[in-house]
Design goal:
single chain; mainly beta; Jelly Rolls; Immunoglobulin-like; TIM Barrel; 5 domains; 9-stranded antiparallel beta sheet; 7-stranded antiparallel beta sheet; about 10% helix; LacZ_4; carbohydrate binding; EC 3.2.1.23
């Protein structure tokens, strides 16, 4: 077989341009050879030996199943010239080979280097920093490196189960990357590529009784790699389960159970197409019985909804089809909200004995484009989706059922209803779980050639390269054939970021010939070969423009809201657009999970690795650009996770008249009425519930609105009141307990806060020299140093509140977020960083208002930005310090440095690590990402604050702060109270901005700079508390991480004047109630000197 194919390929070389000196690579450098001897694609099902096992549908319980998972002998070689002759023979000496787990990626197992790149081909990365690593100067499909193309050799011995005798045996390889030769008992069986759908080989004729061997030769790079340029770890090996299937010579070769809805979406339609094959050389007489049961069936007691028996005579070597259309009246309908299912059981008998039985959970649902809208079961839904990569922080691309369930559970709890399988089909079990538990799926073909760009010129985009047409259509076909029976799939996707052209026209036409549900492709844009306009990272303005001007297709973003690092800004505005415009039907957030890999450094310190943490310094890498998850690598929620839950919640509230307690509640569920939930409302003041309303029960239909009126008048004056709505589940389900909050909202009620005026009478003594201003009495010490350019001592009753002379100083910078770095903010805003570090004192003026009240006006020059920052300290004799700060705007110009923050920070002694605050929390939040947090009373200890991102950056901020107190264990502390109309931003932690900052690096590294390849464990805590008391901080953004900034309303204008004030009140000991009381003190000046 090898020689025959080699001769054929040699003849083919002139056609596809492969030179004769590359013959050793003939299989892996010829895109028209995508397999040899591989079986045709088919649906995912298993041939059980009896009906009860078939209904249970657990492969491992069947005698027809033999797992080949486990320990294999393994050898990794630099390239195929090192492959020893006969390595696949049982007589070959494998004693010096290692053992490797299967399934596993060999790089994760310690063989070779894990490489992460976004859109570059690692074997042909042309960037300066990879010089000396890559063998190829540029990607040149279908060629791959000759020298630097690792080959993994696998070898395993196994005893053949007795049941395999006289039957057909199929070798099922769940996934193998990127190309592989298959050997059984020393003979070459075939060749495969296409790494994310199963490869199956009929190996019956290769087997023998007793001991057998199976072996693989796996190439890291092949022409298939040009179609697998996805934004994830570039890993290799056997990634999914590998097992043997035994089946009778007469068996179900394939079946389609395609469902939709008829008669105004009330009746279920089942198109059944069963193919039986007789691999023997004689005619066989069999019967086929298929039954459809409602619900999950584990026995045969229940009466079937449909049952049909068919007698067949099948000639040797022939196949027959059974095709039948069935209607189920008033069917139970499947949706992500109500995943109602039926069980299809197909049984083949010979001589009245079962020779094969299989089952499938199917659901009746429809998915279509109608009148320019995407409809599921006749209803225009909002896709509240997320992109999902196949990732496990310990095993790379090997994901088990337990982790899949965990993902779906978390998604359900965050109100996510849809998944895009970016950018390849997931394992079989994933679709079964989405079908069972209810999750809409966009199933995407394993095609991405981002590294080739999108140009249709010759030698550019693979989308228009004729030699790749067969591979592209085959990948699409194999995806469809395996997954065609899963009702969770409501859209097919042609692939990702591969340009558009002839090859994708063909794959689109193929899918439209076999399916009625929509087909999408992002790179098609508004061309004809996509049923859904599915752009990625479209901004808010463009989406609104589309909604108004384009009506033929819905807009559903295939990727949006890039959750890299401290991100998630602007999500509120996206979801508002989905609610406002019917043809803006949601999107898929990028993405679900950070792709960190657990490892250790040379000293044994454990950490989560990202790109360039492995291998030599010049290894191709895009750094931490793989960490874009709503959840972290271990599936822990991140600070921004609840923003998704809030934005995707299906019950929303609106205040129509707060003074009268009038509200509207809208049920945004598509198929669920409000009788599944209880609505609760409470009124809180100063962190305590002051009134609880009776639980409310509604039967509000989907997409309908309910008016709510609650008595909120006559609340006692003197406090700020908030009304809080929560929607909780009445019953538990697979993912949410009874009483789980699926939606919530908070409103500030009209109220009048009463303040108490204080006139301090304790005199202060002024001592002023050329360098210092000292104000003091027996209880108070305030020392401003002109040399230090700040307050170096602030003491009350013997308690010092300033660490190491580091009092309040101007702050206009933040530790750069990933979005900041992607937009080159380290260049655009660098002048403000300099201004934060290199300010000078212009003048210090001291004036007495009374004997007990002094003003110290400090004006700072900010040479880097050519403006000034003025701070007036007003010290009262009882130790209270009012701070009024003003940043004067820069002179307006076309180009001004980007301003990230307006505020001040100081360093507190380490003991003051207990933070109590009244503002938004408990999760950190920012101006464009705070709507999922409520104003309430919260506390935390700075010692417990950890870095929540895989790469250190700005973190820990809280907005809308009324007051914040820092206390020590004795209860002594310092209270900061917002003055005026501007509420505070605050942040307290045992890290400094400087330590968290990325310096001048970016995720795509400037030339020759390996920048800050840093991780949280490397950032050491300091022995003091950094405390920010800011007026405002720029939003974190979220549209993308390669240039977009926060929405304009969340940006700062450096030409504008910013002024704010706060009061610092020292205390010896104070309860929470006393802190609230202190926050309402207003200091006045009774008598001027």
């Amino acid at each position: 077989m090898h020689k025959i194919l080699l001769t054929f390929l040699t003849c083919l070389f002139p056609i596809i341009g492969i030179s004769q000196d590359r013959i050793p690579h003939s299989y892996i450098e010829n895109p028209t050879v995508i397999s040899v001897n591989k079986m045709a694609p088919r649906a995912a099902f298993f041939p059980f030996e009896d009906e009860l096992k078939a209904l249970n549908n657990t492969y491992e319980t069947s005698a027809n199943y033999q797992s080949l998972n486990g320990k294999w002998k393994f050898k990794l070689l630099e390239n195929d010239t090192e492959v020893p002759v006969g390595f696949y023979l049982s007589t070959f000496d494998h004693t010096d080979w290692s053992l490797i787990n299967v399934p596993a990626n060999w790089e994760v197992e310690g063989f070779g280097t894990p490489i992460y790149t976004n859109d570059y081909y690692p074997f042909a990365d042309t960037r300066e920093r990879t010089k000396g690593y890559t063998e190829m100067s540029a990607p040149k499909p279908p060629f791959v490196p000759i020298k630097n193309n690792p080959v993994g050799l696998y070898f395993k011995e196994f005893d053949l189960n007795a049941t395999h005798k006289y039957q057909d045996v199929i070798l099922h390889i769940g996934a193998i990357k990127s190309a592989a030769f298959v050997y059984v008992n020393g003979k070459e069986v075939g060749y495969t590529q296409g790494s994310k759908v199963p490869s199956e080989f009929n190996i019956s004729s290769y087997l023998k009784e007793g001991k057998n061997t199976v072996s693989f030769k796996v190439y890291r790079w092949s022409d298939a790699s040009y179609l697998e340029c996805q934004d994830f770890w570039r890993l290799s090996g056997i990634e999914r389960d590998i097992f043997l299937i035994t089946q009778h010579k007469v068996s179900i070769e394939d079946f389609g159970a395609i469902t939709t809805l008829k008669n105004e979406y009330k009746d279920g339609s089942l198109a059944l197409d069963i193919t039986l094959n007789n691999s023997s050389n004689k005619t066989e007489k069999v019967s086929v019985n298929y039954q459809l049961f409602e619900g999950k069936v584990l026995d045969l007691i229940k009466k079937p909804v449909i049952e049909q028996l068919k007698e067949l005579d099948i000639k040797g070597g022939a196949s027959v089809h059974i095709k039948k259309q069935h209607i189920v009246k008033n069917a139970a309908i499947w949706s992500a909200e109500k995943p109602s299912l039926y069980t299809l059981l197909i049984t083949v008998k010979k001589d009245n004995k079962i020779i094969q039985s299989t089952s499938e959970r199917i659901g009746f649902r429809s998915a279509e484009i109608k009148d320019g809208l995407f409809l599921v079961n006749g209803k225009p839904i909002i896709v509240k989706g997320v992109n999902l990569h196949e990732h496990n922080a310990y095993t790379g691309h090997v994901v088990d059922e337990e982790l899949m369930k965990k993902d779906i559970k978390l998604m359900k709890q965050l109100n996510i209803n849809a998944i895009r399988t970016s950018h390849y089909p997931q394992p079989r079990k994933f679709y079964e779980l989405c079908t069972e538990f209810g999750m809409y799926v966009v199933d995407e073909a394993n095609i991405e050639s981002h590294g080739m760009g999108y140009s249709l010129q010759k030698g550019k985009a693979i989308s228009n390269n004729p030699s790749f047409e067969k591979a592209i259509v085959d990948r699409t076909r194999r995806m469809y054939e395996r997954d065609k029976n899963y009702p969770c799939i409501v859209t097919w996707s042609l692939g990702n970021e591969s340009g558009n052209g002839y090859n994708f026209y063909q794959s689109y036409n193929y899918l439209k010939s076999v399916t009625t549900i929509p087909v999408q492709y992002e790179r098609a844009g508004l061309e004809w070969n996509t049923d859904i306009y599915c752009p990625m990272y479209a901004g808010h303005d463009w989406m609104e423009k589309y909604a108004k001007e384009y009506k033929d297709r819905p807009l559903i973003q295939c990727e949006y809201e890039h959750f890299m690092g401290n991100s998630g800004g602007g999500f509120e505005e996206y979801t508002a657009l989905f609610d406002k415009y019917e043809n803006l039907q949601g999107g898929y957030i990028w993405d679900w999970v950070d792709q960190g890999l657990h490892t250790t450094d040379k000293d044994g310190n454990a950490f989560l690795a990202y790109g360039a943490d492995f291998g030599p310094k010049n290894v191709p890498s895009d750094g931490s650009f793989l960490a874009n998850g709503i959840v972290d690598s271990d599936r822990n929620l991140k600070p921004s996770s609840l923003t998704v839950k809030k934005g995707y919640q299906n019950v929303k509230f609106k205040a129509t008249d707060l003074s009268k307690g009038e509200f509207e509640m809208k049920n945004w569920y598509d198929f669920t009425s409000m009788d599944k939930f209880t609505v609760k409302a409470i009124v809180k003041a100063e962190g305590k519930i002051v009134h609880s309303f009776d639980a409310m029960h509604f039967t509000t239909a989907p997409h309908q609105t309910e008016k709510i009126r609650l008595p909120v008048k006559n609340l006692p004056k003197g406090k700020e009141y908030f009304i809080h709505f929560s929607v909780i589940t009445n019953e538990a389900d697979s993912f949410k307990p009874k009483g789980y909050t699926v939606a919530s909202e908070q409103f500030t009620l009209p109220s009048e806060i009463l303040y108490t005026s204080i006139t301090p009478s304790t005199a202060l003594i002024l001592t002023e020299t050329e360098n210092v201003v000292l104000l003091s009495n027996k209880n108070v010490r305030f020392l401003f140093s002109k040399d230090a350019k700040t307050i170096t001592s602030y003491r009350y009753k013997g308690i010092e509140y300033i660490h190491d002379n580091s009092g309040l100083t101007p702050s206009f910078w933040r530790a750069l977020t990933c979005n900041d770095m992607g937009a080159y903010t380290w260049v655009k805003a660098k002048d403000w960083k300099v201004a934060t570090q290199e300010f000078t004192i212009k003048e210090v003026k001291v004036s007495a208002k009374t004997e007990s009240v002094y003003n110290v006006l400090v004006t700072y020059n900010l040479p880097a930005v050519n403006t000034t920052f003025a701070v007036q300290y007003t010290l009262f004799g009882d130790g209270v310090l009012q701070v009024n700060a003003k940043l004067n705007g820069m002179e307006k110009a076309d180009k001004m440095p980007e301003l990230l923050r307006v505020g001040m920070r100081m360093m507190l002694p380490k003991a003051f690590n207990n933070m109590i605050y009244f503002g938004r929390g408990p999760e950190e939040n920012y101006s464009d990402r705070n709507w999922a947090t409520d104003v309430d009373l919260y506390s935390k200890n700075t010692e417990n604050v950890t870095i929540p991102f895989i790469r250190p950056q700005e973190m820990g901020n809280h907005t809308d702060i009324r007051w914040v107190a820092m206390k020590n264990k004795k209860g002594q502390g310092l209270l900061a109270v917002s003055n005026g109309t501007s509420l505070l931003n605050t942040n307290a932690m045992n890290y400094t901005d400087e330590a968290l900052d990325a310096g001048k690096g970016g995720y795509n590294y400037p030339k020759n700079l390996r920048h800050d390849q840093r991780h949280p464990y490397q950032i050491k805590k300091v022995d003091f508390v950094q405390w920010h008391l800011d007026m405002i901080q720029e939003g974190v953004g979220g549209v993308n991480t390669w240039g977009a900034r926060a929405m304009p309303k969340y940006m700062l204008d450096p030409s504008k004047e910013y002024e704010y004030a706060f009061t610092l009140i020292p205390f010896k000991k104070a309860t929470t109630a006393q802190l609230f009381k202190m926050s309402k003190l207003k200091y006045s000046i009774d008598k001027k000197i």
